[in-house]
Task: inverse folding
């Protein structure tokens, strides 16, 4: 519940590191979902060429421009932020990988990693080793297999996720039907919400934004992951009920987050 005399500073300042040339849509989707999830403030660190795109698409967000025109190469000052999210649309350029490694070694705030941030870490064991404890990782099965190895069955994959989360003291959100949230303590939560219509481009970027928004508000990582996945799936169910599973796109999920929050309350 929100205090009657609340102001935006109470609900946290999120930093989203996202986007590259041709993939600025991922940054826009994640940023919009973050704000729709209740973060008081959001700064998006994006390539210089994406400034006009994001500020036009989402005037509520602040923008911090990278030194590079097309990719993520520089880590902004992290001191003013309450939570950090990285990965949507980043690409996997070697300079982006180096910047991600610097981020992982310097960040002291709650962190959620998705998409290309996971792919970069999967291809570089040193970068993987720098992921801080209690970070939230949100891989789909293929992204998970890239850093954990191939699994013969989905059950084997789940056991691997549980073991890695426990060993590394991180939170792994293994996306799919009945998304599994594997916690640092070795617990697994299964999400009952969501539908096949959410198997669409940008759906994962929306989830990253939702979880980032909750982290910025002070929810512990395990709680932010569980609530975020539940809200994301609920919004997807509401969107499919309004239209159809076939026509559902990621923006529709964001559009139903308000009703998902009301349903949860």
Result:
């Amino acid at each position: 519940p929100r205090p009657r005399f609340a102001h935006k500073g109470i609900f946290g300042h999120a930093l989203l590191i996202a986007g590259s040339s041709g993939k600025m849509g991922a940054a826009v989707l994640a940023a919009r979902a973050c704000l729709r999830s209740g973060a008081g403030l959001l700064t998006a660190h994006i390539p210089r060429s994406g400034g006009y795109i994001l500020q036009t698409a989402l005037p509520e967000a602040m923008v911090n421009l990278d030194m590079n025109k097309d990719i993520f190469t520089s880590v902004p000052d992290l001191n003013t932020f309450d939570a950090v999210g990285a990965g949507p649309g980043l690409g996997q350029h070697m300079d982006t990988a180096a910047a991600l490694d610097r981020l992982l070694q310097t960040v002291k705030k709650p962190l959620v990693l998705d998409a290309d941030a996971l792919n970069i870490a999967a291809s570089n064991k040193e970068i993987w080793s720098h992921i801080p404890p209690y970070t939230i990782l949100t891989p789909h099965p293929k992204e998970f297999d890239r850093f954990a190895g191939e699994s013969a069955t989905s059950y084997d994959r789940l056991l691997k996720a549980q073991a890695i989360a426990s060993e590394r003291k991180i939170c792994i959100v293994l996306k799919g039907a009945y998304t599994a949230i594997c916690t640092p303590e070795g617990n697994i939560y299964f999400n009952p919400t969501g539908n096949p219509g959410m198997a669409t481009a940008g759906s994962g970027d929306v989830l990253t934004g939702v979880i980032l928004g909750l982290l910025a508000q002070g929810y512990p990582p395990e709680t932010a992951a569980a609530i975020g996945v539940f809200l994301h799936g609920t919004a997807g169910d509401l969107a499919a009920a309004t239209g159809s599973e076939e026509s559902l796109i990621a923006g529709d999920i964001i559009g139903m987050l308000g009703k998902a929050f009301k349903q949860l309350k």
The chain has a mean pLDDT of 98. The domain at 9-264 is CATH 3.40.1190.20 (UDP-N-acetylmuramoyl-L-alanine:D-glutamate ligase). The longest strand covers residues 41-46. The first helix runs from residue 24 to 36.
